[in-house]
C-alpha cells in the first residue's frame, strides 16, 4: 500500500465532483486503514449503559416544548433504495396504509405537529443521487410543506470502493455504478456542512436537529423530547430502547472506561469471539434506535475546529464489488455510523423511549405488520399499537422477500393479526380477503391459496 492508492481515490472523487469536505473525511479514514485499523471495540474497554433518563419521566411545560420544537428541523435519512426488498426507488415511496406511503405519513406527522404547536418545523430529506428525483417529485404535491429559506433535501456523499489487496479504487466496467458506495449514515454531518445546508439552517434561526430513518414511522416529531433536549444543554442525545431477544443485532450504547464517555458499538465493531457479549440483552440492555438529536451550532463549531473531520470511529465493511456476485473482487467500504457521534461531543446523553418510537421496516415481515390491524393511525399520523404484544411474523423468504412477490401474495390485503401471537408461512401461499390469524399459526406445505374469510389458528 502506498500514497498512490489514496491519490487515485481522491482524483476519482474530484472527477465526480464530490465535495472537498467529503474527500478530507475519506482521506482521514484511508490513512487509518493503511495503518491497519479495524474499528473494533473490545468488551473490556466498556461498561454497559444501565440507567439513562426516560421519556416517561420528562416534565417540560407546553410553552417550552413548543418553543424548542420551533427551533428544530426534522431530517429523514432517505438514501436507500430498499434493494433488499427488490425495490428500485426510495423505500419511503412504498405504500404502507390506505394508499399512503412512508413519505405521505411523515408529511402528515409534520403537519400535525405544526398545527398542534405552531412550530415552523422544516422537513428535510438526506437523499442519495438514486433517491433524489423520485422523492422530490413526490414532495412537490405538498405545496404548503416547504419553509421559506430552507431546502427540502441535501445529498449524501459517495466514495470509491477499495480493493482489499492494495486499497486502490476498484474498477468494474460491467457496472460502473458499483465502483461507488455511500460512506454510511455517519456522512450526515459532512453532507450538511459540504452542501451549505448547515449554515442555512443556522441563518434561519434553527438550533436543533431531530434525525431518524424514513422507514421508521415511530419517530414522529415530539415536542416533549425537543423541550427536554433544549433544557438539558446537551450537544447531542440518542434515543434508546430496552433490548429484547429480537434486538440482539442492533447497535448498543456503552460507557468507555477510560473517560466515562458514551459510545456506540455496532456488530461490525465487535470481534467474533466477543459477539456473545454484544448479543446479550441483559448485559447491554439498551439499543440505539437511530433516532437522535443534536445542536446545530455545536456541530458547526466542532466541524470548524476539526477542519470538517469529526473523527467518528471507523467501520471497515468488507464485501464483494458486486454484492450479487460472490466471485467478484473483494473490496473495503469505508463507513461510519451516525450514532457514533455521541462520543465526539462532551456532555452527550441518551434518553430511553418506548417501542412506539421504533417501528422500522427492514423486511416484508415488518411491512405486513404495519399494513395489518395490529396498528391504527391516530389523528396526528402516528401508528398506534392495538394489541398488548406485537405478533412475530416469519414469511418464507423464497416467496415473500421481494416486494413484488409480497404484493401478489397479499393482493387482497393483510390478514387480521390483532389476535395473533405468531404467523409462520412456509411455501408459496396466496392469501384471500378477510383472513384472520389467531394465536400461533403456521401455513406450510408446497403452497396454494388461503381462502377468503379463512381463520388460521394452532391445530
Structure description:
- With 459 residues, the chain is an alpha/beta fold.
- The protein folds into 2 domains: 3-357, Spore Coat Polysaccharide Biosynthesis Protein SpsA, Chain A (Alpha-Beta Complex), CATH 3.90.550; 364-457, UDP N-Acetylglucosamine Acyltransferase, domain 1, CATH 2.160.10.
- It is built from 13 helices and 25 strands.
- Strand 3 and strand 4 form a beta hairpin.
- Helix 2 runs antiparallel to helix 6 and helix 3 (62-70) packs across helix 8 (223-232).
- The radius of gyration is 23 Å and the shape is globular.
- The mean pLDDT is 93.
Short description:
The chain is of the alpha/beta class and 459 residues long.
Keywords:
459 residues, alpha/beta, Spore Coat Polysaccharide Biosynthesis Protein SpsA, Chain A, UDP N-Acetylglucosamine Acyltransferase, domain 1, 2 domains, four-stranded parallel sheet, 13 helices, 26% helix, globular
Write the layout of secondary structure elements.
Elements: H1 3-15, H2 20-34, E1 46-48, H3 62-70, E2 72-78, E3 95-97, E4 100-101, H4 102-117, E5 123-127, H5 132-139, E6 153-155, E7 159-160, E8 162-163, E9 180-181, H6 188-194, H7 197-203, E10 208-213, H8 223-232, E11 236-242, E12 252-256, E13 262-265, H9 275-278, E14 286-295, H10 296-305, E15 315-320, E16 330-335, E17 349-352, H11 364-371, E18 375-377, E19 383-385, E20 392-395, H12 397-400, H13 403-409, E21 416-425, E22 428-431, E23 436-443, E24 447-450, E25 455-457
Parallel strand pairs: 2-5, 2-10, 5-6, 11-17, 20-21, 21-23, 22-24, 23-25
Antiparallel strand pairs: 1-12, 3-4, 7-9, 8-16, 10-14, 11-14, 12-13, 15-16, 18-19
